[in-house]
Amino acid sequence: MYTRKIKENLDCGILVAAKVFGGKWKLCVLDAINRGFVRPADICRYIDEASPRVIEMQLAELLFFGVIEKCAEDVYPKKTEYKLTALGESILPLLTQMDKWGTAHSEFIKERQRELEESQSV
Fold it and tell me: By residue range, what is the domain housing residue 27?
């Protein structure tokens, strides 16, 4: 089993939030669930840039930290759905603000990204 060499500082709120919500797709997964995409296959279709395995891993981490809960029906074929817990719903106002910020600044960021890619290709 892996043992950390440097102790995590979980007294810092930013580090706690990064631990729970950090990762390339976790916030997108939460957004998908909030928008009604509750089945794993639906979430994968909504976030088509990420592989199903990655989505599965992100769902498992969010489940572990209590941000989402898994509802599985005992039928064949098995039907699994995810929903936000109260903890998960508490991040939604921040997600909304992040979305607004990203939308407002997307053109500037896209331009900077193009410049960066052009400078690296030379």
Answer: 13-90
